[in-house]
Amino acid sequence: MKAGSISFKETFFIGLMLFAIFFGAGNLIFPLSLGQAAGTELIPAIIGFLMTGVGLPLLGVIAIGMSKNEDVQSISAKVHPLFGLLFPVVIYLTIGPLFAVPRTGTVSYEIGIAPLLSEGLKTSGWGMLLYSVVFFTVTYFLALNPGKVVDRIGKMLTPVLLVILTALLVQNIVSPLGEITAPLAAYEAAPFFKGFQEGYLTMDTIGSFVFGLIVINAIRSKGVDSPKQIAKVCTTAGLIAAAGLGLVYVGLAYSGATSVQAIGHLENGGLIISQISNLQFGLSGSLILSVAITFACLTTSIGLIVACSSYFNKLRPSISYKKYVLGLTLVSALISNVGLTQIISFSIPVLVAIYPIVIVLITLTLFGSLLRNRNAIYTWSVLLTGIVSIVEGLGAAGFELGISDVFARYLPLYSLGMGWIVPALVGCVIGFVLSMRQASYVLENE
């Protein structure tokens, strides 16, 4: 092997590492729910889901690999210095204590604990409360000194979880629980676009800003420093991770689609996978799956708390890392008690508002070498995208503004939740024209 190069075997294992990072146990639940709801419209719906649940996270990792040491803060700062401070905070809060971390607690409870409890204990809320105390206490102490313990648990559990999942998915394909039924109303008109937005819930595109840097550090640890080589390895490793995610998501969506006749439409994917595994493998199979998912959720929770605490400690060092860990863990524990379905519902408006901005930033970063000294393109494309996406987010939260009627009438794709696309393109054109004028002005005055 040449100095400064990396073998395919090493790249392959980096790809598996990236797959494990992206594949939090919470990601199990959304393809299942999509499958149940999409029914006979499964194919266009899952294609849309794969674009945002797999394709965009892949592009995010590639973009970070090509960006030469840039992170979410430096990329966001190209829009405006204030945006460069605020938007990363929103990103870390979203993938941290507001949504993603509480979701690890509720997913593991719904799948691993709730099926073993009496109806009275489940409906009273005491089961979730007691479980959250234990789950997040363990998260807190291990996040203080994560060391190699969490890494080793993650490396052991990811293969175990994949083996169990593979067995479940193969069983569902060989002996499906029923026929695929008609789609729910939300998937009848435009299943592709509905699936596209459902992919937001994985939050993996947002996480790719953080995970991309982990991949880069892993590559550098192999002695590779060439930006071109780093970008190449990031792309290959990203494709490996994307292939694994895609296969799992398709299998889960199919499992959900064929489960309706046996278990009916359930309110979240945690309940769906619990019921499916119980029907296919009985109580013992469900228990094994529950244990694997519980520990996988725990490692995800610890990893996200560590990442968020480290970021906020770097942003404001006057508050110690331990205090950030304590504060973020407590907030996560409290939010987890509202329940999985409620957390998902609360997260949708936020994700509808910020996901288009993230998509635009990733796209611009991919073309970063062509946009040098053209920050006006970042500014205007993000500004116009943000105006539309925030209005869409408020609409998703139930706050209909008067301007939304104007957007619905004149903006292409607005009714499909994609009204930000044309404003993003218009913003790119405006930014390009302004940057050209600025460059001409500088030349004239030299």
Structural write-up:
It is a single chain. The model has no long low-confidence stretch (mean pLDDT 88). The protein is an all-alpha fold and 446 residues long. The protein contains 19 helices and no strands. The protein is globular and about 70 Å long. It starts with 7 loop residues before the first helix and ends with a helix. Helix 2 crosses helix 14, helix 8 (126-144) runs antiparallel to helix 15 (321-336) and helix 9 (149-174) crosses helix 12. The relative contact order is 0.17. The protein has helices at 8-22, 29-38, 42-66, 72-76, 81-98, 100-113, 119-124, 126-144, 149-174, 191-198, 204-220, 227-257, 260-263, 269-315, 321-336, 340-366, 375-396, 402-410, 421-444.
The percentage of residues in β strands lies in under 5%
Count of runs of 4 or more consecutive helical residues: 19
* Percent of residues in helices: over 70%
Sheet with the most strands, sense and barrel status: none
**Structural class by SSE content:** mainly alpha
N to C succession of SSEs: HHHHHHHHHHHHHHHHHHH
Radius of gyration: 22 Å
Shape: globular
* N/C terminus separation: 50 Å
Average per-residue pLDDT, rounded, comes to: 88
Which stretches are poorly predicted, pLDDT < 50 over at least 5 residues? none
Count of DSSP E strands? 0
